[in-house]
Amino acid sequence: MGEEWAFVLDEKEIEEKVPVTAKVGKRTVMLYKTGTKIYAVSGKCPHYGAPLHKGVARKGTVICPWHHARFDIETGRLIAPPALKDLEYYDVKVEKSKVWVRKAVRPKPEKVAGTENKLFAIVGAGAAGTACAVTLRREGFGGRVVLITKEDDLPYDRPNLSKDYLAGDAGPEWIPLGSPDYFKRLDIELMTKRTVTGIDIEKRSVRFEEGETLQYDGLLLCTGSIPRKPDMPGTDLEGFYLLRSFSDARRIRQKLEERSSGKSASVVLGTSFIGLEVAQALRHRGVEVHVVAPDKVPMERVFGARVGEFLRELHARQEVVFHLGTTAKAIEGTGKVSGVVLAGGEKIPADIVIAGIGVVPAVDFLEKAPLVSNGVVGVNTRLETVVKGIFAAGDIALITDPATGESRRVEHWAEAERQGQHAARSMMGSGAEYREAPFFWTKQYDTALRYVGYARQYDKIVYRGDVESGNFIAGYYNNGMLRAAAGIGRGKEMILLGELLREGTDVPEELLCDENRSL
């Protein structure tokens, strides 16, 4: 017996192409009208519960206002991560100008014929690997899906580690992307604590550290990155940390929770996204924070001096102490960290040092395979490597930017998830080209900064709004063409710019900088 019909709204309350929400019991439903049709889907993004009616409805899709996941507005089907699940969708009827809905039952995907006896292996269970595995099942792959990770944890939400988890606002139960039952229901075989040491292209197999092998019919390589360790004395002391994995974050969090008040300061090395997010998480806990970096302005290479200075001021207002234009030359201590010595001789007493100075692609296990060039794995527009049947995604993959034709490699979560999704479809035979525009976000205190597009280099920055007040868009142009945009407090405009960049539509400088003209 299906659900009963529930009255939600009068039809006159639903404007053409303007999303509106209503309650059905405890559920939030979003309704959308186009022409004579009214569609209804769940009103919250399954990623982090963002209210979808505050996003953008465009060209048959609705785009999440927080992290830009895209869904089909008619069926609720996921189009692009970081969400990994569809929206619930509803049957709709109109009687005497009253709109009624009833939750629809989504049929299970039919298994694609010819895939039943295949095995697809995925090396790496991060963003790309998990998205690939889930997509294979969502789209009807009928064979074995084996997801391999050297870690002891289930696939987890890495971006949260340096944000709410480290700050203490999110418990460990928030971090996994799914429970063991979730992966079991999808019939995804998880191989944890298994290190892949090589692949045999001729035999189509992966080799494990223990000497075992696994034969595959299709292979996705998405092993992510390894954090750089500073080349200085003292990195072996207790109290020095790198932050990449869930286990890294647990160790740091345990140290913070055991640490008594009144202890000496913490030092963060680097003004990367990880470094600045760690700084804000530590300040949230009341820990004194010093940030050391060779940059004159944080993140200037990515965002430019004005936006970088805004970020510095944001942290300075929270009493973060910056030591810019210098580096650390040693970490001092006997057994435990007691301080950091800067290049000029200044000493900062500290009992915690966390380095966020970048990462390198994790490709060492591929050194005997003809896949790696200059430390990365090149792929075509289907994300397939030079070896047929082997694909790569995420941090290790060098792809061709569809807008510029330049090579690009982006070390961000949503990009890796979208590549993993695309790789799954390619492994199942799709010939579609990867055309996503990169997107990433960072949260600094109560300020969320979003970035869309890809600008390895730019020759001009055009501003919309006011950077210093924290309500702006910065557009990064190269040779007169918009390549990327960063923004705070301009959520819908940032979504639109991301969509225009994905579609290859340029935004003239005079349009972007003119507040009186709509994007």
How large, in whole angstroms, is the Cα Rg? 24 Å
Task: Describe the sheet with the most strands.
Answer: 7 strands, mixed
- Uncertain ranges: none
Integer count of domains: 4
CATH class of the largest domain: Alpha Beta
Structural class: alpha+beta
Global mean pLDDT? 95
Question: Can you tell me about this structure?
Answer:
The protein is an alpha+beta fold and 519 residues long. It has four domains: 6-103, Rieske [2Fe-2S] iron-sulphur domain (Rieske Iron-sulfur Protein); 119-226 and 361-427, FAD/NAD(P)-binding domain (3-Layer(bba) Sandwich); 240-356, FAD/NAD(P)-binding domain (3-Layer(bba) Sandwich); 446-512, FAD/NAD-linked reductase, C-terminal dimerisation domain (Enolase-like, domain 1). It is 19% helix and 33% strand. Helix 2 packs parallel to helix 4 (246-258) and helix 2 (161-167) runs parallel beside helix 5.
